[in-house]
Amino acid sequence: MTLTAMRTIASARRTLADRLRQAGIESAETDARLLIAHALGIDRAELIANGERALSGDETKEIDALSERRLRHEPVARIFGIKEFWSLSLQVGPAVLVPRPETETVIEAALDAVVRDARQMEKLRILDIGTGSGALLLALLSELPNAVGIGSDISAAALEVARANAERSGLAGRATFVACDIAAGLQGPFDLIVSNPPYVARGDIASLAPEVRDYDPALALDGGTDGLDGYRAIAADARRLLAPGGKLIVELGAGQEPAVRVLFTKAGLTAAAVRDDLAGIPRALSAAVAL
Ligand SMILES: C[S@@+](CC[C@H](N)C(=O)[O-])C[C@H]1O[C@@H](n2cnc3c(N)ncnc32)[C@H](O)[C@@H]1O
């Protein structure tokens, strides 16, 4: 695809936004701006200030290449290879889920619990089950200066990305990454266990947005027949792994709170109040060992 109408930065922006809109991409305006700024190596202010500047042939080719990828519904974060999460800039690749803003609700719930117990300066032991890019573990380590943690994942390729993210965030000295099924072989005890497990019911995967279905790894999405397999496995291990007074905090898919509460209760855990995300969806469920 050549964006034939684009002679200047501003016309390229308009043309690309139109094409993205026609392709059903809701964030067309924002994405056009981001992609063109990225292709030209400039920021938003420069993009606007230089709207009438003519594009060179090489710049046009670069914009075309990025545009084609987005028109195939590849997410902007995958095109750039980087996603901001909490205060971190994380590398993302084909082996990992692109961290989502709603997942920050888990961080908020975990930090609330730590602050409530006045434990923020302790050498807390953290486990992040299904760490993917390392998002949850690294965000917590960035906030808790004396904490140490383990990120587990069944995908060795995901763990490579998590290790690279620990390095680029300056947190590698406090983070260890282990390939295992949930927490098999890990001993504990852990003061905080966090997880954003795969939670999409297998039969729903085909109807997800192409940005998710075609680009996030199946391993990061597939939660089994009812979407709850990950929670079952975590619940089965939680009592064994939690330190006295420790907290388990999991991300929930929309509508999963009642079922996960039941699973946790049956596993001998007490689930506390859920924390909503910015859209008002119950998102982070905290639990502790029942007394
Ligand atoms: C929804 S993604 C979450 C990634 C990251 N924690 C985040 O929030 O962005 C789930 C992760 O769990 C991993 N996973 C799937 N099944 C697993 C299992 N049985 N044991 C450990 N990790 C698993 C996937 O490889 C994927 O990285």
Summed up:
With 291 residues, this protein is α/β, with parallel strands linked by helices.
Model description:
The protein is built from twelve helices and nine strands. Helices cover 41% and strands 19% of the residues. The longest helix has 15 residues, at 57-71. The strands form two sheets. It has a seven-stranded mixed β-sheet, with helices on both faces. Strands 1-2 form a two-stranded antiparallel ribbon. It has 291 residues and is an alpha/beta fold. Helix 1 crosses helix 2 (28-40), helix 1 runs parallel beside helix 4 and helix 2 runs antiparallel to helix 4. Strand 4, helix 8 (156-168) and strand 5 form a beta-alpha-beta unit. The protein binds S-adenosylmethionine. S-adenosylmethionine (SAM) is lined by residues 96-97, 99, 103, 130-133, 135-136, 152-155, 158, 181-182, 196-198, 219-220.
Class derived from helix and strand content: alpha/beta
> Which strands sit side by side, in order, in the main sheet?
5-4-3-6-7-9-8
Amino-to-carboxy terminus distance = 63 Å
Bound molecules: S-adenosylmethionine
Residue ranges: pLDDT <50 for 5 or more in a row?
Answer: none
